[in-house]
Amino acid sequence: MQQLRSRRQLGVGPKPLVGVSLLLICAAAAAIVVQHDGAGPREAMPMARRPQAATLPPVHSAVAPLVQRLSTAQLAGQRIVYAYRGLRPPRSLLARIRAGEAAGVVLFATNVSSTEQIRAVIGELQAANASGPVHAPLLVLTDQEGGLVRRLPGAPELSERQLGERPNGVALAGEAGQGAGLNLASAGINVNLAPVLDVYRRAGDFIDEYQRSYSPDPHTVAALGEAFVKAQQRKRVAATAKHFPGLGAAERGQDTDVRPVTLNIPLQELRRVDEAPYRAAIVAGVQLVMLSWAVYPALDPLLPAGLSSAVIHGELRRRLGFRGVTITDGIAAGALRPYATVPQSGVLAAKAGADLLLCSAPSPEEDSPAEGIAVLQAVTRSLNAGRLNLSAAQQAAERVIALRASP
Ligand SMILES: *[C@@H]1O[C@H](CO)[C@@H](O)[C@H](O)[C@H]1NC(C)=O
Ligand SMILES: *[C@@H]1O[C@H](CO)[C@@H](O)[C@H](O)[C@H]1NC(C)=O
Ligand SMILES: *[C@@H]1O[C@H](CO)[C@@H](O)[C@H](O)[C@H]1NC(C)=O
Hints:
Blueprint: H1 4-9, H2 18-30, H3 56-68, H4 72-77, E1 80-82, H5 91-98, E2 104-106, H6 115-130, E3 139-142, E4 144-146, E5 149-150, H7 160-165, H8 169-187, E6 191-192, H9 218-234, E7 238-244, H10 267-274, H11 276-283, E8 288-291, H12 309-319, E9 325-327, H13 342-352, E10 357-358, H14 370-384, H15 390-405
Parallel strand pairs: 1-2, 1-10, 2-3, 3-6, 6-7, 7-8, 8-9
Antiparallel strand pairs: 4-5
Bound molecules: 2-acetamido-2-deoxy-beta-D-glucopyranose (3 copies).
């Protein structure tokens, strides 16, 4: 789950104006160009030769030679999502973005004082992006789930549970997805860390406590989740299905932000109940999947899902066929304390196959995205030392840059 902590600290959104965002998609898809340290030539494919959105794989292949030219820190940077405190992004964060060492920024609500202020912040972030080497928009992410968990005022106003209880829930979930898309796009935010696809078991349990689950029925969750994903992504805001392979069985208080959580769900039930909505969302084209920090002994007896290659490669990619971008939950989660330090957790998650590392704890100091930088440095060192597979890292960067080019 996105930490409740950060939920309270809430964030902001960027806004490629809706019209502009279409343009950005085109510009970005056409002009994903990488240069070293801003020194190289900017080669952009003319708009006329831009591949159609339907031919996304070619975008990947167009990205590949550019990824080869990234420095190790830039390659590591394509994995990092930063957070910050205060009303203005710190200069050190803007410097990382300019250097091409950032994939994106996650925004929290307490820092939104007005729509104009959010737009100005996002403009500043994207201006730093524009002078960076990866010529595609920066990812700007937030949690706009609906109901109680929203970083921006406005849509979607109903909670997932409220939608799931209505007879016309599928239509309403479509409206919620459209509303979230329009709302976030108007602020400049291009990735929503929603919808929650967890299938809750009992009223008031962990995921139902804040009404974040559509239903205890996997078919209902699948149908509403699919409607939300399609409608939101039609508004050019990427959706994130979470938290794979499912937190619906977590009881109240089994909060991975705070402590290790083990969910002893039999394999058959895990696949039939918890994973069912992911099959639907993947077929619907969901662009990101967020990994849970719980341990699922049926899939991997030792490691939390987000650190487990058996879960990410075996279950999500190989078995369910997901080709998009994988993202961790907040990397400083209490669930990881027994396994590694925060920077080392980033390395282990990257090694297991997490493309994006969500460094969402704002630093104690206002002027530094300290957690993101610590993870960036650890991943960079591991790449340099050969402890992380270079070609796997390049493939992750290709997926992330293709996503940056697409929202
Ligand atoms: C922004 O966030 C910081 C801490 O994260 C907080 O101290 C500050 O009051 C927030 N600003 C607003 C306008 O909410
Ligand atoms: C980010 O920068 C690139 C150029 O490097 C530009 O094409 C893209 O439009 C920028 N993104 C936004 C949202 O401004
Ligand atoms: C490194 O990653 C590539 C691409 O994912 C894979 O084919 C290769 O087997 C990996 N090498 C090692 C030593 O794990």
